Amino acid sequence: MDETQLWKGFLNADQKAFEGLFKKYYRPLYLYGYKIVRNTQLLDDCIQDLFFELWTSKERLGEVTSVKGYLFKALKFKLTRELRKENRFDAIEEEPNEWFEISHESWLIEQQTDHEQKERLTHLISQLTKRQQEALYLRFFSQLNYDEIAEVMKLTYQAVVNLIYKSVKFLREHLVPFLILLIQASLGVF
User: Fold this and answer.
1) Residue ranges per domain, the chain?
2) Whole-model pTM?
């Protein structure tokens, strides 16, 4: 079943559809949430609470344009609220590039074979803002579209397009010259 059918089934109190939603989205939600908070117990509790609240309030819910985007946004909201309750949100915000360590770099790094390339890419991604890192993660790792990212990040569509464009442009501008040097070095063209 696709996400729309699962959502409709869930709204009609179909327990199998609800279980299907949970099975389909638990891992992507966990991976996304882990970028926000490294407390696995808190993360797991928030995901469980999210699905519990979905089930208990299904009568008040309606159709959504993207189930995945809706769930990501709901989890981000829930985690943010929990972190504020625990007075840890301010401490996290003080380290803007450390709390959201993007796994997208893992995907990019796997495409590279040389250790220097991996180090360079990791360094470049760490130079992006947390918003840029989050936008890249949502776009390339979680495969959300621009509208879904805008909803999750509470930005306009154009702001998301600009954020991703600038991030990719920065990476391209700084990585391509480095790759050319590596290729020249490996060919002995100096």
Assistant:
1) 3-93, 104-187
2) 0.63
